[in-house]
Amino acid sequence: MNKVFLAGRLTKKPELKQTKNGKNVSDFSLALNRGIKDEDGNEQVDFINCRCWNKVAENLCKYQDKGSFVIVEGSIRVDSYNDKNGDIKYTTYIMVENIEFTPKQTSKKQEQPKQEQSVDNWGSAKDIQPDDLPFY
């Protein structure tokens, strides 16, 4: 069985692209807290590459932005290709079948009361703020 559920924040605004055949696709990255801190007390984060197609890609790009907290459902994919030297290279990503958009959460910087949300059960990735994400 190859099934993955991830909850995290988008590292940048997703972009909608089209293949030569006219199919919509979006490649994006999710930031996920590992739940542990390094020696300096900073939260350790993994960045997971994802891809979605057609209506899922359209809705993601239309309704979500950098820092949006989403829950994705999909499977792990490993593709291979030959580079310029003829060497085989591998890429691993999540092929997203479904994305759940979560309610907008207030930033800690705004110092507004935090509302309890059911998404809290998915882990601590909700603590990643948009300003914590890298630029590409």
Walk me through the topology.
Elements: E1 4-10, E2 17-18, E3 24-37, E4 43-53, H1 54-63, E5 69-82, E6 88-101
Parallel strand pairs: 4-6
Antiparallel strand pairs: 1-3, 1-5, 2-3, 3-4, 5-6
**Main sheet properties:** 5 strands, mixed, barrel
How big is the Rg? 16 Å
Poorly predicted regions are 109-124
**Large-scale geometry:** globular
Widest sheet: strand ordering: 1-3-4-6-5
Task: State the separation between the terminal residues, measured CA to CA.
Answer: 33 Å
| SSE series | EEEEHEE
How many strands appear in the DSSP assignment? Answer: 6
Strand content: over 45%
Count of discrete alpha- or pi-helical segments spanning 4 or more residues: 1
Structural class: mainly beta
Residues in helix, %: under 10%
- Overall pLDDT, averaged? 84
Q: What do these coordinates show?
A:
With 136 residues, the chain is mainly beta. Helix content is 7%, strand content 46%. The chain has one helix and six strands; from the N terminus they run E-E-E-E-H-E-E. Strands 1-3-4-6-5 form a five-stranded mixed barrel. A hairpin with a 5-residue loop joins strand 5 (69-82) and strand 6.
Give a brief description.
The chain is mostly beta strands and 136 residues long.
Question: What labels describe this entry?
Answer:
single chain; 136 residues; mainly beta; five-stranded mixed barrel; 6 strands; 7% helix; globular
